[in-house]
Amino acid sequence: MFIGHYAAAFGAKALAPRAPLWTLVGAAQLLDVAFSGFLIAGLERFRVDPSLPGNQLVLEHMPWSHSLPAAVLWSVLAAALARMIVPWRVAAIIGGVVFSHWILDWITHRPDLGLWFDGPKVGLGFWNLPVAEMAFEMSLLTLAAGAWIARRKEGHQSAWPALLFLTMLCGLAVLYALPAQEPDNAVYAGVMGLVLFGVVTALAWPIDRSWRAPDAH
Fold it and tell me: Among the residues of the chain, which ranges form H helices?
């Protein structure tokens, strides 16, 4: 899963409109940001299997970014850091967005998510049905974006910034889905991951600068 993770950010933005969008977008992919860093450091690893349908990645070892306890720890850390700039309620939502990444990966990944750091691995394997998996991602993203846009309209904000950001993500999804050989160099893959997630997070910053509506209670 790639852009489907941003559905959690959009849904959270509809729920807590004063939460900075860039924090929610960054939170949605925080586990993959960590994975990219651990790839560069040589602490986690993957390989490529071209015979696999859909996503060709075999995520062999990622206990520090994608195991269940690691996901909980990253979520708590994100909420604690977010509390330095936002109220507790919003910080908790940001932490929840971080944890949503593990839930969505559990649905889509093949069994590669550890229930413990080196414990048994789980995953429902929706990746093996690439067309259905992409439809699932796009549906999640569209529904969540619709909720966010509706919330903007309630606050008399234009829908165009949100639609522009959604269009950009859909474009990335199309590029991601195009047939291509997955990179098998860990450092290269890690650097490219950090660049991609950094760019998407940076682009989220100006989208909602003009938001002034109060949080829902």
Answer: 6-15, 21-28, 30-41, 63-66, 68-82, 88-108, 130-154, 160-177, 186-204
Residue-wise pLDDT for 100-149, tens only, equals 999 999 999 999 999 999 889 999 999 999 889 989 998 999 999 999 99
Minimal CA–CA distance to 201: which of 6, 22, 14, 3?
A: 22
Q: Residues near 9 by Cβ (< 8 Å), separated by ≥ 6?
A: 21, 24, 25, 27, 28, 97, 144, 204
Domain ranges of the chain: 3-204
* 213 neighbors 155 (Cβ within 8 angstroms): yes
Dihedral angle sign, alpha carbons of residues 126, 36, 16, 77 = positive
Cβ–Cβ under 8 Å, residues 97 and 16: no
Is 60 within 8 Å of 46 (Cβ atoms)?
Answer: yes
Report d(CA 201, CA 94) in Å as an integer. Answer: 14
| Closest among 1, 56, 46 to 186, alpha carbons compared | 46
Report if pTM > 0.85. Answer: yes
Whole-Å CA distances, 207 to 33, 55, 190: 22, 30, 27
Q: What angle do CA 145, 131, 114 make, to 5 degrees?
A: 80
User: Could you give phi then psi for residue 58, rounded to 5 degrees?
Assistant: -110, 105
